[in-house]
Structures are given as C-alpha cells and as structure tokens.
C-alpha cells in the first residue's frame, strides 16, 4: 500500500477511504486496507471527532474526513509529538485546511 517508515515519518493526504476509525458510519475496502497498513506499521492516526470533518459536501452540508494524518510511534508505542487543527473553510474548495504541528522547534 504505502512504504514502511524507516525513520520518524508523517503521512498526510486525502486518502478517500472510509473507516469507522475516522468517523465514517461504514467502511470500504480501501479504508480496511489503510487501517491494516497503519496497524501493521504501528502508526498513530491523528484524528479528533470533536473537530468535525475535513471535507464538506456543499449541497448536503455533510462533513466527512478523507484527509488524514498518520505519524510513526517510538518507545512503548508513543506517537511522535503532534497535534492537528481543522481550520475554517477555504475559498473555492470543499476541503478544509488542516494545520499539523509536529513539535519541531527550529532556530529562526
């Protein structure tokens, strides 16, 4: 499916897969395969149902979450330090931007 991480890694994208693990009421084959891949590779899904969906069907006003972020884990299956925030609607797209903080502090 996707490469096996060899170092601290963040996978972000519109995976277009359905799973109850990220808020869908049903699952599809792609969602099952993606969840299996993440589990096999000990990845952590950065998902907070309280924030709502990342994609809004304009006509129906239904929000779903095809845009996902998986991060690698390390000692005792602790995920690398991350947080995600779904931002407000962006002009001319049904996808909402998502800000991912991976906890790096670089000198300016």
UniProtKB/TrEMBL annotation:
Q: What is this protein called?
A: Endonuclease/exonuclease/phosphatase domain-containing protein
- Write down the Pfam families for this protein, in alphabetical order: Exo_endo_phos_2
Q: Gene3D superfamilies per the record?
A: Endonuclease/exonuclease/phosphatase
Q: In this protein, which residues make up the domain named Endonuclease/exonuclease/phosphatase? A: 6-78
One example of the protein's molecular function in GO is:
catalytic activity
PANTHER family noted in UniProt: ENDO/EXONUCLEASE/PHOSPHATASE DOMAIN-CONTAINING PROTEIN, ENDONUCLEASE_EXONUCLEASE_PHOSPHATASE DOMAIN-CONTAINING PROTEIN
Organism, per UniProt?
Acyrthosiphon pisum (Pea aphid)
